[in-house]
Structure to design on (306 residues):
């Protein structure tokens, strides 16, 4: 594979620059009109929506990454607690078996019980 | 904080490229014009108090959001139109537009060499078509990074993704465009 793709951005931007330099006068007039309209609507103080979008542009990605990390950490914690609970339950069962609080037969499945009886 | 003159200068410098970007995205001149106008209005109305160096980022972000809004609206409109089109009476007087009327020639192009004009138009059309073939995110990254001249970090901020994603999109767009142009006989 050659590295000729490195010339692509230069070629494309040159063609595009050339193209926008030759926009029709009618189109340019439309753009100028739109610009004037926009400038006429310019206000001095931004509203809360503007502040929020500004904040999102500056910190949005970091926030999403943090939320994803927190979500993963939460899932890992739940899994860990679940494993610990299972382990504790096993220990409790073993202890109660050893102290004969629970008869062994209650833990056997039906087919194993048949084998033992034989 | 940007003064009115700085804002006007920025809009003037960005409007043509913005129009071309919108045109790539929506493939319709009138819709592209509406998108640019909306973007300029939103920027001027809400962010005229923003610092000058933040204007390009804000403008690009608003432009991309407006393009996405347009896509959503078009999708809904198309759905509703499809739903009710069966009920609408069929029009018999549909006129086919004259092809010559659809050709727009700029005033300064009237006197140049027709062969050179044709060649230039052909290359431009080829580049346009190649860019239109790219997936939306790749085209967005490519244009922001190379045409708007934003760095990787700023492109990532505008696109709302990581810097790694921007690099991947740009690289893929580069390779795809190179392959398409080679296939069409352009020597790089």
């Amino acid at each position: 594979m050659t590295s000729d793709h490195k010339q692509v951005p230069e070629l494309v931007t040159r063609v595009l620059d050339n193209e926008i330099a030759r926009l029709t006068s009618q189109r340019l007039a439309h753009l100028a009109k739109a610009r004037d309209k926009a400038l006429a609507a310019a206000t001095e103080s931004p509203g809360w929506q503007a502040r929020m979008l500004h904040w999102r542009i500056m910190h949005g990605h970091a926030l999403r990454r943090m939320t994803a990390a927190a979500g993963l950490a939460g899932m890992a914690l739940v899994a860990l607690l679940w494993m610990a609970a299972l382990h504790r339950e096993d220990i409790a069962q073993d202890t109660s078996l050893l102290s004969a609080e629970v008869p062994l037969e209650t833990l056997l499945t039906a087919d194993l019980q048949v084998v033992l009886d034989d | 904080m940007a003064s009115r003159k700085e804002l006007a200068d920025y809009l003037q410098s960005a409007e043509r490229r913005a129009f071309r970007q919108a045109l790539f995205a929506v493939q319709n001149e009138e819709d592209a014009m509406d998108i640019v106008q909306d973007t300029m209005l939103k920027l001027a109305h809400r962010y005229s108090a923003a610092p000058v160096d933040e204007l390009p980022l804000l403008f690009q972000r608003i432009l991309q959001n407006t393009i996405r809004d347009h896509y959503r609206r078009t999708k809904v409109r198309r759905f509703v139109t499809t739903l009710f089109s069966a009920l609408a009476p069929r029009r018999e007087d549909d006129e086919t537009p004259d092809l010559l009327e659809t050709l727009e020639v700029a005033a300064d192009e009237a006197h140049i060499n027709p062969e050179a004009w044709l060649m230039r138009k052909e290359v431009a059309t080829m580049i346009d078509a190649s860019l239109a073939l790219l997936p939306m995110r790749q085209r967005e990254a490519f244009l922001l990074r190379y045409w708007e001249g934003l760095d990787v970090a700023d492109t990532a901020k505008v696109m709302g993704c990581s810097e790694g994603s921007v690099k991947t999109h740009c690289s893929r767009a580069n390779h795809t465009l190179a392959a398409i142009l080679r296939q069409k006989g352009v020597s790089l």
Q: What stands out?
A: The CA atoms of residues 96 and 102 of chain A lie 6 Å apart.
